[in-house]
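Pair request: fold both.
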Amino acid sequence: MWETMTTRSALVTCEPIDEIPATASVCDFDEIRDPVGGTILAALGDGASTVNVRPAHAAAIEACRCDVVKFTDYYRIRRIHRPTGGR
């Protein structure tokens, strides 16, 4: 499910942060449902901060309305939008 996809994939980042912006919405990992939770685990379990996922999973990241997720530390999650017209 979390394999690298060469077609119709989207990028999501999950990066540790030290300071939480005052305007950030923070969610506890236990409050998040899949596929968002699975996307976060895939990024963290891989040791990388960026993971390729299905576009619907990336859209779920945007829809969850969480800028920061508290797991063992605080992580900023976001979808990376690719430039239009490219591959």
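--- second member of the pair ---
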Amino acid sequence: MNLEIESYESVLGFLEEYFSSRVSSEYYLQELLILIEGSREKRTVTIRPIHELFTKYRNEYRDFSITSPKEIRMWTDLLDVWQ
């Protein structure tokens, strides 16, 4: 999926696909999707709570799969634009 960083629709669609393919916990996946849907309703990206929940999931499940500089940069850009 092509990510247009300033388009909330593009970012939310991207995050939905990103988490669906990376989060193994059904509980955390559902919670992340609820945050994404809430953002959609508000026509914004609530990136801080989304990022915090994803970080909590990663710490709890010891899932530190983000290792590429490209993914680290993506998170930095999302936080810069949407918080």
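Observation on the second member. The two ends are 22 Å apart (CA to CA).
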